[in-house]
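> call design_seq(struct)
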């Protein structure tokens, strides 16, 4: 059995995929790691590039071709396909820090921990900076009971998570398909089943941002605002189906993340308040949220006073709060 399966979602990544692959080409990795590129119905030359590398590095690099179903469908396919003890996702337009990946694999060889949270780099191409993001003030490679430290972890992101494949597969973890922003679910849903974790302070993942075409850009998120709503509502449904088996600490962590996701949905419209339809879209979402998840709707109102204020302030207040939002980092996520 391989120690680590790395799933690389690849859709029209011809521009970046060679760079992504080159960081994996280290002999110290080939015995213990499998790199599974999942081509999600690309329309450019991504498949041809991947086939070239698969032929050259048989047994180390694999290619799975599938019809387009979105990023979530690739993660779901990866969970079905992976043969490694541990599972990690690296997007096709991002890359890894090779030396730190080697260190991580070395640790995983003797590890039985459920999950590893590693530091990662955020690479903003529009502003030309590289920032190290850390998880929390946890000791390097100390095994922690998850419930003992979850209070120090506001969020877990896809970029920091390495998890036992068996946790994902045996508990039937599946994220929303044909939708962007499913990475939130991938990092959140398995929390129910994580009992132990360690923190690995070496950054493994280089996360590329600052591209206008990315799904996380303000313009793209507004265009796909219905997808963000779907991720929120599907995540609330998952929570309600799993809450009975959660510890109180995991329950609190889950609720915190769902409220953050709720805030992000409201912020889509506020950050784009100058767009003609933004106010009407906000009103539609607010009414739908109250109808579909009244309990979380009211928790969101209590947690974020500026969202509560929107109810009473009308269109003028919507534009005023929207104009202020970008200046406040705590609200702008």
């Amino acid at each position: 059995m391989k120690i680590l399966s790395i799933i690389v979602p690849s859709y029209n990544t011809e521009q970046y995929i060679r760079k992504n692959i080159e960081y994996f080409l280290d002999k110290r990795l080939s015995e213990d790691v499998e790199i599974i590129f999942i081509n999600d119905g690309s329309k450019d030359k991504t498949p041809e590039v991947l086939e070239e590398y698969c032929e050259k590095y048989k047994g180390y690099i694999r290619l799975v071709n599938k019809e387009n179903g979105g990023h979530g469908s690739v993660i779901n396919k990866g969970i079905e396909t992976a043969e490694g003890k541990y599972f990690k996702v690296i997007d096709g337009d991002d890359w890894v820090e090779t030396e730190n990946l080697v260190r991580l694999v070395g640790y995983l060889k003797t590890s039985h921990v459920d999950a590893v949270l590693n530091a990662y780099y955020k690479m903003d191409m529009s502003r030309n900076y590289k920032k190290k993001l850390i998880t929390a003030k946890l000791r390097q490679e100390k095994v922690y009971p998850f419930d003992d430290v979850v209070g120090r972890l506001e969020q877990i992101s896809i970029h920091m998570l390495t998890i036992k494949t068996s946790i994902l597969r045996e508990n039937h973890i599946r994220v929303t398909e044909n939708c962007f922003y499913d990475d939130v679910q991938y990092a959140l849903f398995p929390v129910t089943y994580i009992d132990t974790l360690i923190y690995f302070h070496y950054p493994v993942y280089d996360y590329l941002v600052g591209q206008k075409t990315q799904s996380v850009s303000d313009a793209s998120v507004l265009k796909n605002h219905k997808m963000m709503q779907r991720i929120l509502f599907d995540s609330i449904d998952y929570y309600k189906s799993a809450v009975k088996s959660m510890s109180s600490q995991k329950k609190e962590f889950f609720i915190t993340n769902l409220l953050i996701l709720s805030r992000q949905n409201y912020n889509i419209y506020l950050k784009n308040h100058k767009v003609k339809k933004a106010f009407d879209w906000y009103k539609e979402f607010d009414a739908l949220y109250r109808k579909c998840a009244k309990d979380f709707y009211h928790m969101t109102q209590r947690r974020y006073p500026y969202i509560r204020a929107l109810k009473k302030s009308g269109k003028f207040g919507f534009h005023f709060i929207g104009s202020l939002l970008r200046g406040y980092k705590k609200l702008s996520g």
